[in-house]
Amino acid sequence: MTVLVTGARGNIGSRVVTRLQAVGQQIRATARDLATLSVPEGVETARLDLTGEDPTAFTEALKDVDTVFLYATRASAAPFLKAAHAAGVRHVVFLSSPASYEAAEFRGPIGRIHRAAEQDLAASGLDHTILYPSWLATNARRDWGAAIRARQPVELPYPAAQCVPIHPDDVAEVAVDLLLPDNATHRGRMQVLTGPASMRLDEAVAAIGAELGRPIPVREISREAALARREPWMAAEILESLLDSAAAAVGRPAPITNTVERITGRPARPLRTWAAENRADF
Fold first, then answer.
1. 120, 170, 196, 238: which sits with the fewest CB atoms below 10 Å from its CB?
2. What is the pTM of this model?
């Protein structure tokens, strides 16, 4: 049987594809535009728009599919989920976000998107497990990479906000365990995934500096300054929600779980491991 990986060009989806192939699993990787999708040799691909409304458009992607790796979309994926149920899909692993339930974010845009997607999944009747990964280590590259490469201070509106960085490979490896057709040991309603340690954002910057062998200065800026420097690709409403979450996390240790170790059999990787693997990005 086949594992369908949606969002196969994404940060986590691409890693899921690579790891499924490594264990010899039949995979079908999908994207709305196959021209943007690059997969390892031998991996089958299919065009798939999760938010489409024509059930017949899902037939090819879902043929002989046993399990599905799914991500949240802004528009409803309910028609796809209905088609997946009709096609006999046995389990869905859904990549969600703690914003779905955390007090500072669940009413915000990120929380609303993920809660709506979870509700569609629950209504579909499909057996599923929801993954809630903590702060992805790759956020450091996205948010701080340009400043670090330019040897400029990393500007943070809430440097004392606490997070638990998680290596994206840990998320992918948990997902693969849950997706393998003959492995149902850890399937459940949800799995909360975190890295091994809660740390302040400025401590996370320092951890990257330690791997680079040089200190990285941090400059605290106001909330207003952060909003004024918003990147065009990030909606103002989303940045407001992220700032609300950071403000709520100041001085408050972030929750830590042992889920990664319990499922994969090895401890979650620390941030410095990810930083060492990605030195060239900084």
1. 238
2. 0.95
